[in-house]
Structures
1.
Amino acid sequence: MILVFYLLRFQIGPFFFGTSVVMFVFILQFVLNHIDKLVGKGLDAWIIAQVVGLNLAWMMVLAVPMGVLFMTLMSFGGMSAAQEITIMRASGISLLRMMRPAIIAGLLLTCGVYWFNDEVLPDANHRAKTLMQDIQRKKPTFAIEGGQFASQIEGYTILSRQTKPDGTLLGVTIYDQTSPLRASVVSADTGRVAFNRNFTRLIITLNRGEIHQIGRQNPADYRRILFSTHRIALETNDFAFTRSSDDMFSRGDREMNIAAMKELVRKSETSILGIDSSANREIEAHLSYIFNGEQIGVQPPKLTDDNAWSRVQSRISIIRSALESTSFQREDNQSRIRGLSVEIYKKYAIPFACFVFVFVGCPLGVMSRRGNFGISAAISLGIYIVYWACLIAGEKLADRAVISPAAGMWMGNVVIGFIGLFITMQINTETLPFFNKIKRITTGFFVRKKEQ
């Protein structure tokens, strides 16, 4: 038990450190990719914080396995560099026994990430999608710059020759194109612009100006109105940020838990059975029509009759159209089943990487004999790139029905797990024949090169 706590003491710090570093990289990438959608719309800091906070869920799912890999590499590399691995081996402690606390921690993290992936992540993804759609619908903050036309409000174009720092507009002209009967042009010496409290109206207060109105159908219908003070209330839409209900939008594959996706798979499979039954009935009716005509109550045409071939072609066109329609429906349901199955197996496969990476990180940490951040980060990044490439390739192949969804999603775990088990058993038996052979080959190659 003392050994367990001693080993865990080396692993807790690197785990949180590695996970935090990966989370920081993901957050930085997310902000850079979405900064154009968040800045310039007058959003509160709390709304932006909610956007980042909701997206932390998927970042956490991807960062924890990376943290496990970094934890094992850094902790076992540090102990190997300090000769503690050698001392424990001399005391009769095998590598697998030293790995036992990390294996238990990996299993616990696998269960925790699986629960988080199935229960928390779908709701977080759905709320994040709803919030981003609300933000995209909001128009940028209304502003009038001197010497430029402002046309954010539909039907109105506003021009200010000069804008003072206190917000006063000089030489204001407003073109009103909202009325189908007449066009209006309002000009004033000065003015000010402000929204009402709920951002539903833009209030423009003008001083010392005139209004010109001319009929669209009758140019002789012209009026000129002078004013000392004139106030215009313009209807505005989507300048205020409004939150939509989470139930307004349907959930995608990554916004549902496993139970909900399995229910959709069951419905699609039931739909396929109905489509197959309908297609069988169409074919049976067509064959019956050709041979005896009993099922549809008419006699099949004789090819010697007038227009017989046109009637046959018409019948074939009808059955072909019906079968093509059912074929498209069947393919659509099959594609839906494949997509849902991929997401279901992904919810199992990614958490299980926490367990698989233990068998890769521990032996590689012992072999590297380095416990510093640079070496651990470089090895972790290389392994994670291989794992992620297998995951993405498996997902693409499964979506295209080249391989099964289970094989596609578990490909990364199988490849990395096989490599990890191989290295673990090599180091645990202290034989290392494979690595010694590679070392001899590479050493001999460089010696021959040097002699030449």
2.
Amino acid sequence: MARIVVGLGNPGPEYENTRHNAGFRVIDLLAENLRVSYWKEEAGAKVGLVRFGQDDLVLAKPQTFMNLSGKAVSKLTQAYDADPSEVIIVHDDLDLPEETVRVKRGGGHGGHNGLRSLTESLGTGDFLRVRIGIGRPPGRQDSADFVLEPMSRRVAERLEAQVPHAAQAVLHVLEHGVDSAMQEYNAG
């Protein structure tokens, strides 16, 4: 059986240092730690494959831009015969304060265009989520501008400190299930 973990983000160097690419950062760290040695282009995503326990693990970074992420993920679930409700999506979340990681199953899109695209393309919002808090924009700043603007060094360091925590949350979901991960990561 294949398990799929998708980090949401936008391709290209102009988006590398943005809050919206938190999911890509987590996938990169997981790939490094699990020793993914080869990335391929598949279904509109960069895909790294590795064995994890008894399962094939697919690590993916959609290259379709955030607003169309669902198309790539839908193609991957079909290609790997994966149940959408077991796909793990790693993404930034405006509704969580900085330096927060939370795990959940399902839910709405909360205005997040990547989650909206996933829900539309998969026909369900009942996928697993590892959410990385980025906080709300200051004042009246537009949310889209906030998530896509280059981060200051201090903000980038705070986000980067959460990447290993989010990667551990993903591994916890894979090894022990979402309920156990929610108990571990959502307390406090």
3.
Amino acid sequence: MHNILVLNGPNLNMLGTRQPEVYGSTTLKMVEDLCISHGQSLGQTVTHFQSNHEGALIDAIHAARGTQDGIVLNAGAYTHTSVALMDAIASAEVPLVEVHLSNIHAREPFRHKSYIAAVALGQICGFGAQSYVMALDALAAHLAEKGAG
């Protein structure tokens, strides 16, 4: 059984009502329930945390060291601005998959740069809530491979 932390950054608490033409009508609670259910099917215990505050996300990443086997992170707009989050991920040394509901590479040019990508196992974007499911699958495969090696 692996422990996976799903972290959601700023404005993701507004899912379902915030720009549904971009982010869809799925609420954060629906994403959380989907992750818990899918995680159970993979033998993962999934916990969630959301904050609009960069420091709280950094604290959660630091706390994951030694307690979590993997992290799924949707850093929201901090993806494109936060060297501090990037540094926290690098220092925590917990495998992390970056996710986005929308395809950030098909949006405004400032969204094309991800500071998180440099320290993540990989990036999944553009598949709505399914991006989180894909991230959980990717972490399960990574952790299985790591355990086999």
4.
Amino acid sequence: MNSLEEKLSILSEMIAFAKADEDLNDSEYNFLFSVATNLGVNKKTFDSLFKAKAQKIIPKTQAERILQFHRLLLLMNVDNNQRLVEISKLHNIGLGMGLPPSAIEQVLSVMHQYPDKIVPPEVLIDIFKAHYN
């Protein structure tokens, strides 16, 4: 499992992403807190990340990078309101993690085919697998 520093980095990146549109609503906060809880980060530590960012640590493995991309994709769609700034930022985050540009673009395109734009994990994995072969 990830170290505490890696977990805080994951959450810090997600918080910054949620703030990209200048509007952090309750559904986004609740989603972020559920991720924090899943990662074993307590509420006090989680809330402190809204004031001070954690050191950025890029996930080590490709699987961890894809998982983080998926978390960000879910976060973007949790409020059913995707803005161009969020889509662009998610694309750039994926590129920064070294994910294939064509896979990122395909995921952003196919998300519209699913209820609430929630791309099933197996579909996401298949997209990335296809771009690595």
